[in-house]
Amino acid sequence: MTVFSRLFPSFASAYGLQSILAVIFVPQQTEIFYDLGGALGFLSTTYISLYYPFLTAKFIDKIPGAVLPALTSFAPRQLLLGVAIGVWSVRLGAYLGIRAIRAGGDSRFDAVRERPAKFTAYWLMQATWISLVGLPVYLVNTLPAPLHPSLTPRDYASLALFTGSFLFEVVADRQKAAWKRAKERKEHDERFIRSGLWAVSRHPKYLDGYLDALRYYPPDRCVPPRCRCARCSESSVHVVPPA
């Protein structure tokens, strides 16, 4: 099985989910749930990348004894990456979603929400974003758990990078929110925030985005270009022998 064929279900689920959300929300001309849909996209594609072989074996191929394995059966690297992208996407999606709900909308969509074709394209662009940002995680999950090497210093360095960039993003969001509240109270009339992390970087959120590609990037040996070995085939599906 090629790497692309293992990645395809994750990509298909990303575009499928965002297409469904577009069908629901484009006619309503609302983007309030756009970012929550992005968070749900990351969670669902990560789940699909882990469980697709087992879901296929159990529900499509109907292999006798096929079961869905417990999360603890996956490799530590797969679990760490899954938790990292899950925590990051849920935090960001919830923050932006709650902000949009409180504001009654998102100004980023003022020029497109009444243009169905362009608004739909935004939802599909989100599916592309989910596919590209999550790609390192999906690649790691294409390798059966028993074939994963032990965690290396590179893994721990990636975890440290994730923790630092995640905190950077959280602090930047809190500082921006506090700045906006102060402006609403007429405590200042600044056009742009220039304090805290925003004094160090004009776009700290973009800096965190650049770190995304690094913090999820897997060791090269975790992603074989193609594998047909017996061990890989036997490790792809959990089968419980009949009693």
Essential attributes:
mainly alpha; flat; 243 residues; disordered C terminus; 9 helices; single chain
Question: Could you give the topology of this structure?
Answer:
Elements: H1 3-25, H2 34-60, H3 76-103, H4 116-133, H5 135-141, H6 153-184, H7 197-200, H8 204-215, H9 230-235
Helix pairs in contact: 1-2, 1-4, 2-3, 2-4, 2-5, 3-6, 6-8
Poorly predicted regions are 223-235, 239-243
Assembly state (oligomeric): single chain
Beta-strand share of residues:
under 5%
Mean pLDDT: 85
- The overall strand count is 0
Q: How many helices in DSSP terms?
A: 9
Q: Return the structural class.
A: mainly alpha
Query: What about the largest sheet?
Result: none
Shape: flat
Compute the CA-based radius of gyration: 21 Å
Order of helices and strands: HHHHHHHHH
End-to-end gap: 31 Å
Description:
With 243 residues, the protein is mostly helical. It is built from nine helices and no strands. Helix content is 65%, strand content 0%. It starts with a helix and ends in an 8-residue tail after the last helix.
